[in-house]
Amino acid sequence: MAKENMRFSWATLGCGAIAGEMAQAMKRLGGTFCGVAGRRPEKARAFAAAYGIEKVYEAPDELFRDPDIDIVYISTPHNTHAPYICRALAAGKHVLAEKSITLNSDELSRAAALAEEKHRILAEAMTLYHMPLFKKLDGLVRSGALGALHIAQLNFGSYKPYDEKNRFFSKALAGGALLDIGIYALSCARWFMSEKPEELLSQVRLAATGVDEEAGLLLKNRAGEMSAVTLSLRARQPKRATLAFDKGYIEIFDYPRADKAAIVWTEDGRREEIAAGAADEALGCEVLDMEAAAAGETNAMHLDYTTDVMEIMTRLRRAWGLQYPEEA
Asked: Fewer CB atoms near the end CB (10 Å): N or C, the chain?
């Protein structure tokens, strides 16, 4: 990805590992965060020193009040996202929030309404929506070359030693497989499905803390397209997506940040390799698309897909009886 000057002033609310990756992505683009805030000011100061950031805010609202900041990137725990998003939007900032963007559909609906009222961009940092490979595959699918989609199969599994204090298993930190890793699988499925799934079936295994640690999901939309998703926080699985169409299937490995895929054509079994972009440029793609949206040049942030996925996750958790403290 060629370096180009970033056009907007960004600040980060959150100083964790993903915020560090975003700072590095901006550096490759020739820019940086202009300011940083965190829940602990001392951590924000350390982050600023590590990445050459000029402004350190003592509190999030100080960041939101800064007239020099155009876009706020939020990467705090996702049970804190909704209030921060709404305060940033109310202050006139564009917002890019890490996944999951909110806890549930009601929170997202309120935030989206505020973004529309303030004429600001609100988006979830779902990397695959911005990767060149997925844009290339989307063009191929929309061309009709593969015919109709029949079923999408997606896996995502990682092994996390059980610890009730770890955020993955903590209900107080909105833990669980669905919001942490399932969102990638569901977002990938939604990218290829022609419309939102309406029919949902699932099986879930809850951890002792009450959050979902493993699940199997089956989705179907009115077009008859189906998606099968398996998730686990207790066993490794390949991050693999297989999309089966009339005329062939697409196979994508490591789909959250994929730069390669393969098409196997039904008629003759021919395998065609597809490549676009680079996995290590994934976050830079997010930044550039967000800036283009903020400039009014594109509508590439896909809040519509984010809304569909959030509705699915909200309905699934309600069926499981899984409620977070903020939702009580």
From this structure: C
